[in-house]
Amino acid sequence: MSKHYLTSLLAAAAIAALLSILPVATVAQSDAQAKTGKGGGKQGKGGTQGKNEQKENVAEFQSDVTPSGPTPRTPDGKVDLSGVWTPGLSFTNMGQVPLQPWAEEVYKQRRATLSKDDPEGHCLPAGVPRISPFLQKFVQTPTLLVILDEGNIHSYRQVFLDGRPHLDDPGPLWMGDSIGKWDGDTLVVDTIYLNDKTWLNGQGLPHSEDLHVVERFRRPDLGHLQIEITMEDPKAFTKPHTFTRTYFLRPAWEIQEYVCNEFNVDADHLVGK
């Protein structure tokens, strides 16, 4: 493993551990901050410092490391999503999720204990749509898209593109059941049957087994992958919530072996209060 890559791997692990204990505002908390005059400057993702840091991150990932060129296509003319991708800091993007009162209380409790019970932090699957700052490898065939995670527990997702319907009530699954279809140059992925054991992010945003996730994958050029994600959960949310992530192609990189149980820097930090 190269020194450059090892440094990136350690940095990603450190970012994941740090963000698991940083606060992220939900809609209710954001409204409360607005009424009390809190939340400005360095507070939260919406502060001036946070925006400047995100701009610097975008500039870094859009450097000459990210290749330019036209959108690649498969022999049958479909957009080819294949490649090794990094989400940069967009893995933190989720915005203000509109929670039901019970879900807001669960979120507050998880924040109060500093995410010590985070399943992903204890080497359980992250679920959908949660991701880590580590690389992801997309492998696309005419009938199947496979997403391989370097982080978490080397989680993987299968997105079936052969026209099959969803499974017939397989019971709650860690990564759900995902089927995809093309809408022009956009791949629309529909995921259901998710269990309620996962957290939507490291800060503890909850969901129920009614969570329904729709992802719209677009590759506008060679070096960028845009994913628009809509989450619906009538039991946990007051309304559907949509956010976007942008990935950057790393053609000279490859996903490496990562064993969560041996290289879990999160567990030492998830000690609660």
Notes on the structure:
This protein is of the alpha+beta class and 273 residues long. The protein has one domain (3-249): Lipocalin, CATH 2.40.128.20. It has helices at residues 3-19, 27-36, 48-61, 101-112; strands spanning 83-86, 136-140, 144-149, 156-160, 177-183, 186-192, 212-218, 224-232, 241-249. It has a nine-stranded mixed barrel. The radius of gyration is 19 Å and the shape is globular.
Question: Considering DSSP H and I runs of 4 or more, what fraction of the residues is helical?
Answer: 10-25%
What is the succession of H and E elements? Answer: HHHEHEEEEEEEE
CATH architecture: Beta Barrel
- What proportion of the residues form beta strands (DSSP E)? 15-25%
Q: What is the CATH fold-level name?
A: Lipocalin
Basic shape: globular
Index terms:
alpha+beta; Lipocalin; nine-stranded mixed beta barrel; globular
Topology readout:
Blueprint: H1 3-19, H2 27-36, H3 48-61, E1 83-86, H4 101-112, E2 136-140, E3 144-149, E4 156-160, E5 177-183, E6 186-192, E7 212-218, E8 224-232, E9 241-249
Parallel strand pairs: 4-5
Antiparallel strand pairs: 1-2, 1-9, 2-3, 3-4, 5-6, 6-7, 7-8, 8-9
